[in-house]
Amino acid sequence: MRFGSYILSSAAIAATVSAQSTTVVSVFAAGPTRLPLAGIKGSIVDANAVATTMVLNCVDAPSVTCALHQPLTVTEGPSTWSMSAVISTETRGVEATLTLDQKCKITSSTQLASCSESVGLQLSTEGFSTSTGTTTVTSYSSDSIYYPTMTVTGGIEQLNQPQATQTPDAAAGRIGMGGAAAAAVAAAAAGFL
C-alpha cells in the first residue's frame, strides 16, 4: 500500500519538476568549515535511479563569490557523492594541470561519510615536466556534514527521462510512469527536490 502512495506523490513531484526551468537543490558537503555555494549554478547532465550527475560552474565569470575557472562534475545519490575536476592554467611559460577527485560513501544523509580525496599536480615548461599527487581518506561525523543549496538552471528535464528510473546496468527498455515516479523518489531522496 505504501508503494502506491509513493507513486502518486512522486508523479506529482515529477510533474512539478517538468514545469520548472530552474530549481534549488541541496548538495552534500563535509568538512570543518561550511562553505556556501554562492555564485555557483548547476546543470543536470544525467540522472538514473542511483544518482544524479551535475556540472557546476559560476553564474557569471569567476569572481570573489565564485572562484571556479572551469566546471566541476558532481555525482550524488543517497549513499554516494563524487566530484572531479581538471583545472589547467599557464603563467610565465609554465603550464599547470591540477586534477581533483573525491569519492564519498554516505551512511544515512547526516550520520557519517567516508571520503577518498586525490589531488594531482603536473607542471611543464620548455620540454621539462614534473608531477606529484596524494590521496587521503577522511571520515566525517554528523557535525561535519551539511547540505548547502544551489540553483540548477539546466537539465531539469533529465529527471523525467526514462533512463532516470533505471540503474546504470539496467536494460534500455522503457518502464513507463512508474519509472518517472521512481526517478522523482530517487531525486527527492538525494535531496535534489
TrEMBL record:
Question: Where does the signal peptide begin and end?
Answer: 1-19
Q: Which UniProt keywords apply?
A: Signal
Q: Which domain of life is it from?
A: Eukaryota
What name does the UniProt record give this protein?
Answer: GPI anchored cell wall protein
The major lineage groups are:
Eukaryota, Fungi, Dikarya, Ascomycota, Pezizomycotina
